[in-house]
Amino acid sequence: MARALITGSTSGLGLEFAWQLAGTGHDLVLVGRDEERLGNVSRQIRHVHDVDIEVMEADLCDRRRLDRVAVRLTDPVDPISLLVNNGGYALRGSFLEVDVADHEHQLDTLMRSVLVLSHAAAGAMVQRRRGAILNVSSLAGFSGTGPHAAARSWITVFTESLAAELEGTGVTATALLPGFVPTSRRARAAMTGDGLPRVSWLAAPFVVEKALRDAANGTVLSMPSVAPASSGDDEIAGPRVARTGVPGLDRLRRRLAERRVGLARRRASRRRLKAPWMDPDGR
What we know:
By secondary structure, the protein is an alpha/beta fold. The chain has helices at 12-23, 35-48, 63-73, 100-128, 147-166, 204-216, 249-270, and strands spanning 3-7, 27-32, 53-57, 82-85, 131-136, 171-176, 221-222. It has a single domain (3-270), classed as 3-Layer(aba) Sandwich (Rossmann fold).
């Protein structure tokens, strides 16, 4: 069975990647900073899907712990078939308002970890002539909005360069460039606790499904069509809904959101992802 390693796997798109990859039969290595949340996520996924899950507690800006994750990617006995570089976070405040040490930690997480882990994974995958690397970037990389956007731009350009270098090796590299996707910076709690996505999360299931499909096809830039949010990337992504005084409108929207997310997850769990990094028999 193919195994995927996912950084930033306890919230945001990383959590959605974990659920959908488990639903398609992938064993998992979940990497995150919070050991308790990693345990919660792994238990809840195992309760639904019959997959093997490892957890690795690691802050990606800690070079010693990052090296441990890189070593795991090179294990020849229990190899990693798919690397999802999803670790990252945003800082509150303008460039000058934030301490330079915080900027350095952010760039280590967004850029250095992608560089180190991609290098380790690609080297091992090329030897096996099979594998895939999926780096989460952002359309924000095309904007001039500070170090975070610059780091996302770097991820995109780096992935394009890596994909060109890997051509013909059986290994692919894909950069995911979502638009406005809800994050967990405001609300880290899930529907019933850690490990389940927010019920108001309209975009994430579709963004991840498209990203995995594009990675399986060897697409270098995956750019899901996501409608802009009404007031920043912490809001619900999707078509704007007029604010009215109709009683129960918010409750109706929440119920519709729950239904859409549920349908997306069930669809992802039923489909078989036929990807080059998986065994020839589709396992």
